[in-house]
Specification:
Keywords: Transit peptide. By secondary structure, the chain is of the alpha+beta class. It is globular, with a radius of gyration of 18 Å.
Length: 217
């Protein structure tokens, strides 16, 4: 999947701008992705986690200038991202501002579901979803960097090659299936549908079931 394909499925984005002398070091201390060494114009995906290791926000980080960074996330979740970054900003030379999505672009929801890209509020529920199982840890986590909030859970599961209790999967479903419907394997309920387009769906499925294709980026 190239950048143009991904852009078409993202839709409108809220942007949190972080700028100042400590912008790089502060973000490096807060994100699951490495920030140091980024070139101007470079982009990297990252999780912004709670100390428990659960996801607050999935975001894309862009280095706009030497002391300016932009974090974009799904429309409607910029306030949550801003609040989370402000929460730990103590004696830091950096200002944070929110630029709300203008709604000019529309996401290709069918394409998003087809490739398995998770959306905030659907596949990723703030304060509930853990990175393992989203299919994004290889893309959004630097396992060689220093400490950041939530690192312990992420690193522990990776070092033990631990499988998440549930994984995000692409599924073929019956016409009329809706988000929130149960996923059934035989006579057992093994998960929940999160997004649907026709007969293609995304959903979280228990590791005990082989249904669907595990999402992996």
């Amino acid at each position: 999947m190239d950048a143009a394909e991904l852009e078409s499925v993202l839709g409108p984005r809220d942007v949190v701008v972080v700028e100042g002398g400590d912008a790089e070091s502060y973000l490096h201390s807060q994100l699951s992705q490495s920030v140091t060494g980024m070139d101007v114009g470079e982009q990297r995906w990252t999780f912004v986690l709670q100390p428990t290791g659960k996801i607050d926000v999935l975001a894309r980080l862009t280095r706009a200038d030497d002391a300016r960074f932009e974090l974009d996330t799904d429309a409607g979740f910029g306030d949550e991202l801003l609040a989370r970054l402000e929460r730990f900003k103590i004696r830091v030379d950096a200002t944070l501002t929110l630029q709300a999505a203008d709604g000019a672009a529309e996401a290709d929801e069918a394409a998003r579901i087809a490739i398995g890209w998770p959306r905030m509020g659907a596949e990723i529920v703030a304060g509930d979803t853990i990175p393992a199982g989203t299919g994004l840890t290889k893309l959004a986590v630097d396992f060689t960097k220093g400490c950041y909030p939530g690192q312990e859970l992420v690193e522990r599961m990776d070092s033990r090659a631990a499988e998440a209790p549930k994984s995000l999967r692409r599924l073929t479903v019956a016409e009329g299936t809706s988000a929130g419907d149960p996923i059934v394997d035989g006579d057992q309920e093994v998960g929940t549908v999160t997004s649907v387009s026709g007969t293609v769906a995304l959903g979280w499925v228990k590791r005990s079931s082989d249904l669907g294709d595990v999402v992996q980026f």
